[in-house]
Amino acid sequence: MATELELGRIQPGAFFGEMGILGHAPRSAQVSAESVCDFLECPDYLFDSLCKQSPQLKDWLRQSADARMDSRLKIRD
Asked: Using CA atoms, how far apart are residues 9 and 15, in angstroms rounded to an integer?
């Protein structure tokens, strides 16, 4: 049986999944909601197209992914 570990909470308007989409890899964590939510899914092909139109998007998401990973490492320390 897997043990659940809360790595963080996100606020309305925030996003998740950037590490998986940047690396074209399966997600590394599971997300659960405490209340009813609306989600926008962005498949790889659409993400790649958006990044071609706006290369800054990929850079910004990479910085966000790095910051999230840094915060996860601090939790483990």
From this structure: 11
How many other C-beta atoms can be found within 10 angstroms of the C-beta atom of residue 51? Answer: 16
**Residue 7 is assigned to a structural domain of this protein:** no
Distance CA 22, CA 65 (A): 9
Two structure tokens written together for 13 = 């308007």
Q: Which two tokens stand for residue 56?
A: 């800054």
Separation of alpha carbons 59 and 51, rounded Å: 9
Give residue-wise pLDDT tens across range 16-58. Answer: 888 888 888 877 778 888 889 888 888 889 999 999 999 999 9
The model's pTM is: 0.66
**Which domain, by its residues, includes 51?**
41-77
The tally of domains found in the chain comes to 1
Compare 48 and 68 and report the one with higher pLDDT.
48
